[in-house]
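Now for one protein, fold included:
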Amino acid sequence: MPISRTPRFLAAASLLALSTPVLAQETAQMPPPAPSANTTADDYDMEIIVSVDGLRTLDVLSAQSVVEDAELLRNMSGQIGDVLARQPGVSATSFAPGASRPVLRGFTGSRVAVLTDGLGALDLSANSADHGVAIDPLTAERIEVLRGPAVLLYGSQAIGGAVNVVDRRIPRRMPTGGFDLQATGTLGSNADERRGGAAADLALSERIVLHVDGSYGETDDFEAGGYVLAPRLRAEQSAIAAEERAEGHLDEAEEALELANRRGRVPDSASRQYTLGGGLSVITDTGSLGFSVGLFDSRYGVPERPGAEHAHGEEEDGHDEAHDEDHGAEHGHGEGGVSIDLRQWRGDVRAEVDTGGGMLDRIRVRAGYADYEHTEFEGAEVGTRFFSQAFEGRLDLVQAQRGRWSGVTGAQGYTRDFDAIGAEAFVPPSRSEQFGIFTLQEFDFAPWELDLAGRYERSSVSSNAVVTALESDATMAVDRNFDAVSGAATISRRLSPGLRAGITGSRAERAPSSEELFSNGAHIATQSYELGNPDFGTESAWGIEGWIDGDLGPAHVHFAAYGQWFDDFIYASDTGREIDGLPLFAYTQGDARWLGLEGQIAAPFVVRDGFTLSGDLVFDYIDAQLADGTPLPRIPPLRILPGIEAQADPFSMRAEVEHAFAQDDVAGFETPTEDYTLVNLSAGWQPFGEDNDTQLIVSANNLFDVTARRHASLTKDFVPMPGRDIRVAIRFSI
């Protein structure tokens, strides 16, 4: 599809012309996000600043949640998606315990960016659901969930939202008393989970800080609350058992019947991961300069769908494998257990300088490079190896304040070299490049406020080995270039000192990913043969969102209603054909629309003599379909999550009930998902008061051991959510 570059570039230049640096420093106050479940009455006026570089100024363009402190500790897990799944508008892919990426407002994969301190994770988790995120939540100081149009300033691949994990690996401040240590540990009964991590900052001089951190986590196969297989798969296995018995194959019949009636343990669901990292910063009165290096290493099992007779490396694919012999023996995976061995080395640099005013108030530079590799195994046999070398850099120019006008302007660059070696590589080697310029501007005419954002992005995706046709060995070179212009505008009004309401309009564009362009092969993670289209153009969407956020009397409220209308939306369509026994899904472009509601409210019921009783409610709903009314796949159903919490320092207790309704609006190739209700209890103790991070939390998740399945998961029919899990989590700091 031909793309006109000149008008788009002029549009971007016009946006940037608004940002000549006569504006303002970051004086905008972040409206406090809806308080987490552990928020007390005294916390409602606390200001929380989202730290992603460049988003502090135009906070109202982005709905956000911040997970930290007791809430982060209580929800600790090995993967980011599972940590955040109770936030409004958030679900998780839950492919396996070692691979679970966030789902934001029904978007995932290449439409959701996972960041670490404002830069991409630089892994391959967006490429396939069975690829884990190369970030350990155990080392996080806090995790920020960003939704809405402002996140497009972090690239077109964030069209659905972004998650930013903030850690201390590059120190931002001198440690109090010259030394800081924070350690975290968790134990879980369901999968014999044990995790531990620590981070320390040491002042080497008055201006130099050394940081070291590390973590280790391990789980055995987890246990479901009831039957492992969903009803349809159980019926399939029972039918197979009857057929085998009729043919006299009694052993095969017994095996199929045993599989149909399997309860409890989910085979090949064990995991192990560790991280090591260090950083050094020079901190002065006018800025800082620091760097860090880190290692992320993970091994995790990938449960296989019953009946998926993997001939990995021959006629099927390999995006769901990985298990080395030692790991399989250690956790009881069978000889043919599928597993993934993932490793990433990463280095980062961050610099910030206060210019003292004039045209610019502050300059920030951030850059990161990662060397990533993962190997997919079946038993001890190597299937396919994936490699990625990626770099991302970012420059933010924070403008000096001029009257009511403030803002930030910047540039961002990204490159990635990708390769896959093995019989199951369904995407050819490719190189991706991206360069973007952006601006954010705020005009404060109290009580009204106008916020503008814009981004121009030039990207290219190339490969020298694109297969020319189905089941062909012939290849060709393809080099595609894309221009994307995105913009957003918000007008809001302060209704009271702590309450603001507004409406946001946006136009966003996204360039296709290499998988959407070049795929041609069996992909076991999706149980399909996937076919890309190298002729795709950009995906675009118009969006509108109305919201209200802030304090309403003693309560804190956040409510948002949104819609997005896509042109040339890219999705995988079932062609009705089969190749090598797998259904053929061809990536297609068509129109689609997204509608949704989400909200959170928290309020104290009783505040008396050091005792607080408060309640909260989270809810979200998404309706996404193609222009012809066909539901899009893996869209989370309506969910409500009420909770109640009592606090009498230094103790707290919390109870919550999460109910997900049944999802019957499904695509033709997916199965409905039954409703479920989870009851969770927890009790906390802060022995040194709330001014100290030391705390102990004992919790019971899924108290009644029910069977629950996330509709957003590709593996939901044979990988349910964990059953009852009694957990102990502790964090202390000195």
